[in-house]
Design a protein that fits this description.
Layout: H1 2-6, E1 14-18, H2 25-35, E2 50-57, E3 60-68, H3 75-81, E4 92-96, E5 110-118, E6 121-126
Parallel strand pairs: 1-4, 1-5, 3-4
Antiparallel strand pairs: 2-3, 5-6
Length: 133
């Protein structure tokens, strides 16, 4: 799913992921990264808050910002990290635990809810896709 989604992204795309612990948010990010030509290991930036990777998009190298809001105490913390400045520009931003920073999420973000439905199964709900082609 992540690899297919990567093919629809453009510069400035923002993806927000919601789901409990172990739902598969980072796994989805790994698939998106793979679809964007990233070969290095993608891990959850829980402690670093933001990880940056070099992605390939339409033949260009663009930054992929993997942001984890789990340890943030709301929108003010998010802005203090500088993460708000990374969204909507020349790169792609993916935010895990986006429900912790609701006012910082752009209206045109692709919103994906992941629900655990069994030990090896997940239900993905995509709320809207205005940032896709």
């Amino acid at each position: 799913m992540g690899e297919r989604l990567a093919g629809k992204l453009k510069q400035g795309s923002v993806i927000v992921l919601r789901g409990g612990l172990g739902a598969g948010k980072t796994c989805l990010v790994k698939g998106i990264a793979r679809g964007l030509g990233i070969t290095e290991s993608v891990t959850s930036p829980t402690y670093t808050i933001i990880s940056e990777y070099s992605a390939r998009l339409s033949g260009e190298t663009v930054p992929l910002y993997h942001i984890d809001a789990y340890r943030l105490n709301g929108d003010a913390d998010f802005e203090n990290t500088g993460a708000g400045e990374l969204m909507g520009g020349g790169g792609i931003a993916i935010i895990e635990w986006s429900e912790r920073i609701p006012r910082s999420i752009p209206e045109n973000a692709i919103k994906i809810d992941i629900e655990i439905t069994g030990p090896q199964s997940r239900l993905f709900r995509v709320d809207d896709e205005p940032a896709c082609h």
